[in-house]
Amino acid sequence: xxxxxxxxxxxxxxxxxxxxxxxxxxxxxxxxxxxxxxxxxxxxxxxxxxxxxxxxxxxxxxxxxxxxxxxxxxxxxxxxxxxxxxxxxxxxxxxxxxxxxxxxxxxxxxxxxxxxxxxxxxxxxxxxxxxxxxxxxxxxxxxxxxxxxxxxxxxxxxxxxxxxxxxxxxxxxxxxxxxxxxxxxxxxxxxxxxxxxxxxxxxxxxxxxxxxxxxxxxxxxxxxxxxxxxxxxxxxxxxxxxxxxxxxxxxxxxxxxxxxxxxxxxxxxxxxxxxxxxxxxxxxxxxxxxxxxxxxxxxxxxxxxxxxxxxxxxxxxxxxxxxxxxxxxxxxxxxxxxxxxxxxxxxxxxxxxxxxxxxxxxxxxxxxxxxxxxxxxxxxxxxxxxxxxxxxxxxxxxxxxxxxxxxxxxxxxxxxxxx
Length: 419
What we know:
Helix content: 40-55%
Order of helices and strands: EEEEEEEEHHHHHHHHHHHHHHHHH
Radius of gyration: 27 Å
Strand content: 5-15%
Structural class: alpha+beta
Distance between the termini: 39 Å
Number of strands: 8
Number of helices: 17
């Protein structure tokens, strides 16, 4: 259902005069309102973990305002007073661009503000999201024409609490005099100089993402969001996962209890540190001779993902699927669930399961059966978002789900995935 609307006769309460650099106290008109999917991906240049949710989006004046999804209302009955806004975005100086590499969803565009906040907005309806993009872009162009950059920066600094520095950046000796500030040419000159330098600094400051891409700031590998890590590495399977499995397949497939036996925790933590802080890593070095250290680090990598390899939203369905009595129905449903996972999750799960199948081919030597691998990787690859008291019961079905994926690997991964 299309919940978007274009109206010119609905008004919302304007911000207070102090909240806008050139507010004249008049009531802005609502230009567009509708239901979109929204997530915030950066705040002040710092990346945030994506968390998509439906939001009632209102474009009014120079602002984009987000309200909680009014499930029981329609555009004709919705009024701003019925709910409080979750957040708002000032569009002065903002940038808008289509993106297909920041999300697996289709029809996504990114909105970046002058303060470094970034949002993704999305709709399944092509025409609807294009209409939103064009409308917001037109507002940004109009605001850029009506409001000089000086006003935008000063407004951003005021909201950040930095305007005081600009207003008190004159000469100390002059400030100790009783002359009004406006009467001191020296002070005015100094203020302008500081403001000019500060504005140039702000405009030259590269975003955090650019620094990361140049290698000046290195993101962590352990504890990093899987999608963010894969985007950074321009792959759908993390490099560290590939390195570990290559090491195991080159010298560990015959090792008794591979993946079940624990490695030295101190050495695992040392490897974890090096992975997070060094570009080059050679797991063939004698320092990593114990293959159980490598397998322990790989399991730790998966356990430290902010969201497990099997996303939280799939956990309950997979557990319920494992409980089904009809075997083929169970396999088909599990195949459907796996195919609908985001590309990094799907491809990394495929990669790991293909590797574990190779481990199983040497079960006579390593004594790792399908059941043993299920016990090890059930809780490693998936977990519930919240413990509802059924942890022990869920664990059984988590293990069975991994066993089923390995047993029916060719059928479940038959239509998609990297080699």
